[in-house]
Specification:
The structure is a homodimer of 193-residue chains.
Chain A (H helix, E strand, L loop, with lengths): L1 H10 L1 E2 L5 E2 L7 E2 L1 H14 L7 E5 L3 H12 L3 E4 L11 E8 L4 E8 L8 E9 L3 H12 L3 E11 L4 H7 L4 E9 L6 E2 L5
Parallel strand pairs in A: 4-5, 4-8, 8-9, 9-10
Antiparallel strand pairs in A: 1-2, 6-7, 10-11
Helix pairs in contact in A: 2-3
């Protein structure tokens, strides 16, 4: 998605070989117009897929999922990270390892909002180590629902997640796929995703 | 907003006199169509106000803010609760007391994404004790920006927040204003907000 790649080059900040900061337009300040184009692009990619629900994880997946959901005409469910007093006791859980915090945590979806008949599209902001998507997939498996597609805005294809998920049979569609960020230079993969 | 009130009566669950659960359509599973109507309603209410940015707090304000932002044509900034490694060191802070967790925490916005020239509309899901809005207002004050309006989807007018904010000169517009939830019965305020 050229518009997105241009924006990453213009406003993304490479903090290290693995950390790309896009918080001026994607996950702290949000450019809602860009997000609309992102939503349309996901709809194009998954146009032939029957989707009953979009699943994401808090926090930074939420804005992407709700804007995209407008093009799919389906509800969004976001998995919660914390045990809220207001969250139902009956939940489907997934495990996520945080490399930044160096610990495992659980994400949860109330059993009321995902059922075995659901055909679920996972959307998220980044694919790096694949942990969030693995956790979301675990929730889908526990609910006996069906994963029908997985999309991320930005993929860092040189980090382990892409391969790990592929080995699990999960193909991730990325709107921008980064090949390397050596010395602060962002190089995109040439193959169209 | 009648559509919202009808939905609250239909799908809201009163867990106690102070806790209304709306996670089937607002803050766990999200009915994006309803959210669009909510966004339009906020635009109607704040139509005469010049807004350069919508500010909210993670987590449950995000979906509301981004959908509404489409009608205002402005970016969204959401205040973060955690000290992320990816968050800028230079931030404006606000203090929020959590009654459920019985402790104070900080919310933060990078200084890059709010400036003294910004005219800010705060949007959030609930007004109960007013803590989140107080914290967001503190961020706006610290940034020397201008608060031009405050909107919430649901206000529980019998809890202290409404009065506390009014005393600070902050008028909150609520799309549904609840007068009481005694014995599980939701009673809305009659006055149009």
């Amino acid at each position: 998605m050229q518009l997105l790649k241009d924006r990453i080059i213009k406003d993304g900040r490479v903090l290290s070989e693995n950390i790309l900061k896009v918080d001026s337009f994607l996950n702290h300040q949000i450019d809602v117009k860009l997000l609309n184009e992102i939503g349309k692009e996901f709809k194009k990619i998954f146009n032939d897929v029957e989707v009953t629900k979009i699943l994401t994880a808090e926090v930074s997946g939420i804005s992407i999922a709700v804007i995209a959901a407008q093009y799919f005409n389906v509800p969004v469910v976001f998995a919660k990270k914390t045990e809220s007093v207001n969250l139902d006791k009956e939940t489907y859980e997934g495990n996520v390892y945080s490399y930044t915090k160096k610990k495992q945590y659980k994400i949860r979806v109330s059993k009321n909002y995902i059922s075995k008949d659901d055909k679920i599209l996972i959307l998220d902001d980044f694919l790096a180590n694949g942990e969030a998507i693995k956790g979301l997939n675990e929730i889908i498996t526990n609910a006996k629902a069906t994963l029908v597609g997985t999309g991320v805005v930005i993929e860092k294809s040189y980090q382990p997640g892409k391969k790990i998920l592929e080995d699990m049979g999960i193909e991730v569609k990325a709107l921008a796929s980064i090949k390397s960020m050596t010395d602060g230079n962002i190089v995109f993969c040439k193959t169209k995703k």
